[in-house]
Design brief:
Blueprint (H helix, E strand, L loop, with lengths): L10 E4 L6 E4 L9 H10 L1 H10 L7 H13 L1 H8 L9 H15 L1
Antiparallel strand pairs: 1-2
């Protein structure tokens, strides 16, 4: 098994606090840092997101909304497939990581 590199799961999402793209090994992460968590809590955006996710028409996890927002930013073509029900959010992970990595490399 030498030479095999295992990538940890990485979830790309839009931070509720600052609105920037971020990644985490946790699927339920909503903010990129403790500072943004406090900001989102104080300005009410965290509560608004949780209230939106709890609506009967949605009834999804708040983190899924933020991950879908990241798909919309990085890969609008995949976002359209998500909207049409042709893909599930978890099916976008590989493409999202690739697009996020490309974005990181281009900003260096």
């Amino acid at each position: 098994m030498s030479g095999v590199t295992l990538k940890p799961k990485c979830y790309i999402f839009v931070c509720v606090g600052c609105g920037l793209l971020a990644c985490s090994g946790r699927s339920d992460r909503l903010t990129c840092s403790p500072r943004c968590r406090v900001r989102a809590h104080r300005n009410g955006s965290l509560k608004r997101l949780r209230d939106l996710a709890a609506l009967p028409t949605f009834d999804i996890e708040p983190a899924s909304i933020q991950q879908a927002a990241a798909v919309e930013q990085l890969r609008p073509d995949l976002a359209e497939k998500l909207k049409l029900g042709q893909m599930e959010l978890q099916d976008t992970r590989k493409e999202m990581w690739s697009a996020f990595w490309t974005l990181l490399e281009s900003s260096l």
